[in-house]
Amino acid sequence: MISGFATSDGTKKFAQNSGINQDNFNEFENLTLSNVGIGTYLGDADARTDELVTDAVKQSIISGVNVVDTAINYRSQKAERSVGKAISELIQEGKISRDQIFLSTKNGYVTNDADVQLGFWEYVKEEYTQKDVIKEGDVTSGYHCMTPTYLSDQLDRSLKNLGLECVDLMYLHNAVEGQIKDISKEQFLENLKSVFELYEQKRDEGKIKFYGMATWECFRVPKENSQYLSLEETVNMAKKIGGENHGFRFIQLPFNMHYDQALLGRNQLLGSESVSILEAAMKLKIGVFTSVPLMQGRLLVPGVMPDFNGLKPSLRALQFIRSSPGVLAPLVGQKSSDHVSENLEIMKIAPIPEDEFLTLVKKLTS
Prior knowledge:
Blueprint: H1 8-17, E1 25-28, E2 31-34, E3 37-39, H2 47-62, E4 67-69, H3 78-92, E5 102-107, H4 120-129, H5 148-162, E6 167-173, H6 175-179, H7 185-204, E7 208-214, H8 231-242, E8 248-254, H9 261-264, E9 268-270, E10 273-275, H10 277-283, E11 287-291, H11 313-323, E12 327-333, H12 337-343, H13 354-365
Parallel strand pairs: 3-12, 4-5, 5-6, 6-7, 7-8, 8-11, 11-12
Antiparallel strand pairs: 1-2, 9-10
């Protein structure tokens, strides 16, 4: 197991040694983080994909990316193992040290293990129900479980998969979206409190540095929607549990030129003011990572995205997202060497300055 975690000195050294334009790193929580990260969501649960993901993570890091995102349920635990292999090999090769890489994973969905020859429910029965990790009624119709017992079990499995003693960021994965059809909002918030208490305990144990919520709908939908969550109230909950030095510092949500609610929707209330989730996050000092920057390739079709800055579609998509005030980095899923090379051409240019970006948004929305 590799010890350590991302540090101020380590991430700063990574940025300085990267040979990348330093404007392509953001400072947050005393960490220096690349403004593009690699995601590891899609792909078959097979050995060939393992190899592709490991190589893509290594290539991304060598190209100046020090933000790596995964989840225990991605490819039924194989994504985490591929990421762990990449980090371990780069450390053994002397290319990086653990303190230079910011690594996030997620738990909450019920997952099997593609490396164990058992059907999904057989695995669940053998690994979870027979060992009292999951009890009757714990799992929702959305295959989601957020009991402290289950999440604690999943964290230990994630650390083992990754080969790490500590993960920089643990997200609760699509919690509102996976739970709200089966329980009341009041019950959900009580359960969320228990999860935050668990995550604070795991910080004390040195297994996680920060925690957050990886989401799909809850921070983008209108207040009347049953899935809606107030970021301010969520931060206040974390403060009550962990004090001013609580670990709830990050969220993840979908954002691109099609899913633009994070930037343009004013659904979050701060005092009496309605603001976008990105504005709310900046004011509350919450870092935002974004998912689906290319809409799984759908935004790359000619004519789908408006032209600007003379960039090819993939770079246009990434440039728009990472230039949005409040975004730390889009997380781009990339497996083939060609895609990694193409996407990371973006690291050769600086993001759009804020005043130019706001002018661009006005032009695109007029």
